[in-house]
Design goal:
mainly alpha; two-stranded antiparallel sheet
């Protein structure tokens, strides 16, 4: 079992009666929990021992469950659900016995794809958003401004239109 989970030994389940969640939320959480219990947690120790991170294979399986498209538009392959389902995903992913998969999944669904979903052209959504939601493409973020580090809110780089070019 992963080191952090060894210290805790338990993860609180989502209650069967919840003030914010309906039965569909609980069913969604149960499906994801079953996936985690069958496909992820039994393998975490081996992955950590081998210093491997099977992002592509796990992401494809998570994509089939729809977790990368929970609140993305139906017309582009998302589930079109409200933010409460994203909370269910985040809570349930907390049952994973390592931090890498929940963090990478959150980057995929909540950092790398929302702007594309909201502002991307039809072409970009079909070319990049759909495969990202399906877990066929693993998104990444690149932050290279010297004074900002990983704090993207501190970025000062600007872009200006010069004719048809963005400089």
């Amino acid at each position: 079992m992963a080191k952090a989970v060894n210290k805790i030994k338990a993860v609180a389940p989502i209650a069967s009666h919840h003030i914010l969640y309906g039965q569909s939320h609980l069913n969604f959480a149960d499906t994801l929990t079953q996936f985690i219990d069958k496909n992820v947690n039994p393998n975490v120790d081996e992955w950590e021992r081998n210093k491997s991170f099977p992002a592509r294979s796990i992401f494809k399986k998570l994509g089939k469950l729809g977790i990368f498209g929970v609140n993305k538009p139906i017309e582009y392959g998302g589930l079109g659900l409200d933010f409460s389902y994203s909370v269910v995903v985040a809570e349930t992913m907390g049952k994973i016995n390592c931090a890498a998969i929940p963090m990478a999944s959150a980057v995929q669904s909540d950092m790398a794809t929302p702007a594309l979903s909201e502002y991307g052209s039809d072409y970009l959504k079909r070319e990049f958003l759909l495969p990202s939601m399906l877990g066929e493409r693993v998104a990444c973020l690149g932050v290279s401004e010297a004074c900002a580090g990983s704090d993207v809110a501190s970025i000062r780089t600007t872009a200006h239109w010069h004719g048809d070019d963005l400089i």
